[in-house]
Structure formats: C-alpha cells, structure tokens
Specification:
There is one protein chain. By secondary structure, the protein is α+β, with helices and mostly antiparallel strands. It has 2 helices and 2 strands; from the N terminus they run αββα. It has a two-stranded antiparallel ribbon. The two termini are 13 Å apart.
C-alpha cells in the first residue's frame, strides 16, 4: 500500500525529479536543492514508482 504524502515526509525528496532525486552534487558534497514547491509532482512520481514495483 502506498504511503501518503504526510507519511513520507522527507523521504518524499528521494523521488523528486527536479533535484536529481533529492540531492544534487555541488563541489562533491550533497546539497539539498528543495524549494518545497513541487511536492505534488514528486508525490505523483512516487506513486508511479510504487505501481511499477508492485507489478
């Protein structure tokens, strides 16, 4: 069963296609690029990945 956006909390960032799935490398160190404005798009990405894993 897929988790809700609230249940995922920061784990949702791992599915964000806009920030290279949560992190972008800058000067060889991870740097969180999240602006928190595309979480709905990211949740949609999560649901698509969840459905693929279920098949």
């Amino acid at each position: 069963m897929a988790k809700s956006k609230d249940e995922l909390d920061e784990e949702l960032c791992n599915y964000c296609p806009l920030t290279d799935y949560g992190l972008t490398k800058i000067n060889n160190a991870p740097y969180n690029q999240c602006e928190g404005i595309r979480c709905d798009l990211t949740y949609k990405e999560y649901l698509e990945n969840f459905e693929e894993e279920e098949e």
